[in-house]
Amino acid sequence: xxxxxxxxxxxxxxxxxxxxxxxxxxxxxxxxxxxxxxxxxxxxxxxxxxxxxxxxxxxxxxxxxxxxxxxxxxxxxxxxxxxxxxxxx
Length: 89
What we know:
- By secondary structure, the chain is an all-alpha fold.
- It has a domain at 50-89.
- The chain is 35% helix and 0% strand.
- It has helices at residues 14-26, 48-57, 68-75.
């Protein structure tokens, strides 16, 4: 035995996924993004445990908007249920 400790984080994200699917279904995919908006455009809704894991794995120090790995992760079809609107980032 090495004496190593393992921490496992689990979070039920069923409600978040269901809400994301509903928002995605209600969004007009032809609607233009308002790039001049102060608040920006919500592209995804990600549970905190997933967000923290991504931040650690991708070594994000500042904004996820500038992180190409995050955009690639969000555009991956396996992660589509975190998206709140169609399109690519």
